[in-house]
Design brief:
alpha+beta; 4-stranded antiparallel beta sheet; binds magnesium ion; about 35% helix; 10 strands
Length: about 220
């Protein structure tokens, strides 16, 4: 785990693979490698990194048909020195912002249940126990992807979290907020979140990155 601080442009990304015996692991690794292949630089659109990840996963499937059906989420943030955070996202990993003690999910989940909630067909509470809650509607590893992209201005004291659904499936947002508020160092916060997910049953692998903003 990188516990360093930097004033350079920085890309932080989480990919959560799915499909096949080993396919998910392969897909997430390939997507991250391709997304990170170019140096962190404001000139490269974050969404282009996600598309590069998709192209690489599709190419790997083409080369080895046994990998077909593999896919991965990819949630990527380009942190720029003036406090600009540029986000590109596909899938059900999440990017959260903790600001003044308030936790906000900035990314949308590309899941069936999130769509049903948005359409008013089920409540957020029903989504938590819905039998198809794991169904991801957009994913890396499909020919035509649409990548969510947006920018936000960060402030000193902001804490940004990028995580796989292994965290938020096991730990409610209010508990995530409390852990983030109670933890001092970003690495402590990340480990505490992973421990909380495991303590709650840890039904899935959990990946967490925590970034503190000091401008
Ligand atoms: Mg997962």
């Amino acid at each position: 785990m990188n516990d360093g601080s930097t004033e350079e442009p920085t890309v932080i990304a989480v990919a959560d693979g799915m499909g096949g015996a080993v396919g998910g692991e392969v897909a997430s690794r390939i997507a991250i490698e391709a997304a990170m292949a170019e140096p962190a630089d404001a000139a490269i659109e974050p969404a282009d990194r996600v598309r590069a990840g998709n192209d690489a996963v599709l190419a790997a499937i083409e080369e080895d048909y046994t990998l077909s059906g593999m896919g991965t989420t990819l949630t990527l943030g380009l942190f720029l020195p003036a406090g600009l955070l540029r986000i590109a996202h596909i899938g059900d990993s999440r990017l959260y912002l903790l600001r003044n003690g308030v936790l906000e999910q900035l990314t949308k989940d590309h899941t069936l249940v999130a769509e049903l909630v948005a359409m008013g067909q089920i409540t957020p509470e029903e989504a938590e126990t819905h039998p198809r809650r794991n169904l991801v509607t957009k994913v890396i590893g499909t020919p035509e992807i649409s990548v969510d992209e947006f920018d936000i201005d960060l402030k000193p004291g902001d804490r940004v979290v990028i995580c796989s659904d292994g965290l938020n499936a096991m730990v409610r947002d209010d508990a995530i907020a409390k852990i983030l508020t109670d933890s001092w160092a970003p690495s402590d916060a990340a480990w505490s979140l992973i421990e909380a997910a495991n303590a709650a049953g840890g039904a899935d692998n959990t990946t967490v990155a925590v970034v503190d903003v000091s401008l």
